[in-house]
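Forwarding these from the shared drive since the link keeps breaking.
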Amino acid sequence: QVQLVESGGGLVQAGGSLRLSCAASGGAFTMYALGWFRQAPGKEREFVAHISRNSDNTYYADSVKGRFTISRDSAKNTVYLQMNSLKPEDTAVYYCAAERTTTVRIDPREYDYWGQGTQVTVSS
């Protein structure tokens, strides 16, 4: 059983930056690929970014490509999402999730473990 705890959310002006963290415990961190998702009020949860088990492959939603960067630190059992050039439409609750496959997964139903989420609000 893997536990995931996100942090780093907050209120930021458009054009600003935030770095989200997700600390994992209770399982072998390197056995899991990790993803970030977000959910705005009244909308479905959507894929943001994915990183493979050994960090050799990353994948991004078109809406964040070039602005967001996903990374992981196996020594700290933590995955990060660096968010730059934030826009009001990035406002959402951001979740990290873990899955054990070796291919990119963008469907939230294919993830096994989830964190509780952290709120990101971007003001215009």
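-- next protein --
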Amino acid sequence: QVQLVESGGGSVQAGGSLRLSCAASGLTTNKNSLVWFRHAPGMEREGVASIYGSFGDTYYSDSVKGRFAISRDNAKNTVYLQMDSLKPEDTAMYYCAAALGWVRSLSRASYPYWGQGTQVTVSS
């Protein structure tokens, strides 16, 4: 049974940083694909960063490229999202999701396993 547990959300001022964590069980991070999505009220759920492949290839949405970094610690079976230069428009519930095997996609439909989410609020 795959389980994903997010942590690390909180409130921060614009320009600040946060690091989100996603602890995975039931799958191994170095053999499968994990992604961070976010969902703001009134908006579509948006995939922002994915990590996949033996060497940890990464893929970002244009909205976060250069500000966010996804990484993984295979020994801890955990994926991280380092978020820098945060903006008020980054305010959302952030979800970790996973797919078996290699998936280079930020599409919600590609990921069958989801965590419960962690809230990120950025104030101006």
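The chain has no helices and eleven strands. The longest strand covers residues 92-100.

- D.
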